[in-house]
Amino acid sequence: MSLPREGEVRIPSGCAVSGMFSKSGKRMNGEQIIRSIEVMHDRSNGLGGGFAAYGIYPEYKEYYAFHIFYDDISTKQECERFLERHFDIINLSKIPTRKMPQITDVPLIWRYFVTPLPTKLAESQLDEREFVAKCVFHINTRIKGSYVFSSGKNMGVFKAVGFPEDVGRFYRLDEYAGYCFTAHGRYPTNTPGWWGGAHPFALLDYTVVHNGEISSYDANRRAIEMYGYKCTLQTDTEVIAYIIDYLHRKQGLNWQEICSVIAAPFWQTIEGMPEQERKKHEYLRNVFASQLITGPFSILVGFEGGMMALNDRLKLRSMVVGEKDDMFYVASEESAIRVIQPELDKVWSPKGGECVLVTLEGGKA
What we know:
Blueprint: E1 16-22, E2 28-29, H1 31-38, E3 49-54, E4 64-70, H2 73-86, E5 87-94, E6 108-116, H3 118-124, H4 128-142, E7 146-150, E8 155-160, H5 164-170, E9 177-178, E10 180-185, E11 201-203, E12 206-212, H6 217-225, H7 238-250, H8 255-262, H9 267-271, H10 275-287, E13 297-303, E14 306-311, E15 320-324, E16 327-331, H11 335-338, E17 346-348, E18 356-359
Antiparallel strand pairs: 1-10, 1-16, 2-9, 3-8, 3-10, 4-6, 4-7, 5-6, 11-12, 12-13, 13-14, 14-18, 15-16, 15-17
């Protein structure tokens, strides 16, 4: 009996990512991103799914939206006492969900729109975003049974244990409208499947969905924790979100430079560059060596007013980009784009280590 030839057997390569972005800022219904990730059902195994959505809270766009998981009522009460000491709580409520037999062991899921108390902010001697980030880490590491899984302005993360299409409908994502959505279907290989470990991972307005495995995780984790970050979620992807925050918010690198750190060109490639470009890449590789991520990956990074897509420098994971009018799509498979936009102006596959960046026309949201 002859063995099947290459291409005749489908190997999903675990995990699926999908994203859609309107460059004009047009707000779209969340049902589209659910349909996109649902096409790649076989890339997941039901142990994690999630979404990030931008532009969904225009009525509260000046406030940080905290999405929090709680184990029980007493934990919720302890966390709310901390929030009341540090923030002005503008609004709080349960996050709306619908009963679904596929989603079980549901924690308490609450949403808070907050702004730092001026006295606490002044006392901290920190800028506002750093103050909020430190409060998030305090809750996630000091208040057992509480986990802030989303903390940006005018955006939110929605995640759970389950297949992604079920997670999206559980959170009633079809009732939200935003200019940017990312999605993830998880197939965990060496880390547990639990609510906190589902993607996206987020800090402030930065969100990350990831297909792959980070072989440099221990080195990346030890390095990033030197700067006050805490990796507590039992999965390698968490460290990418903190690296993004550190490089962009704290170090002031632009997105192209961040790509050149995370998926840095090989030294022999750098040696062949024009002098000015070579010096720039040499500097980035030397100064930010600990933020180089190795191993197979494709990631989507969401942020206020934009989205970035990036493959590892050897392109060991699939990623396809499609464009139609002002719409930008990216997914692990072209089928996940075609199901929501059959007619594309352009479709292409980024090179390994190539920074693919899309932003709102005219800048920030």
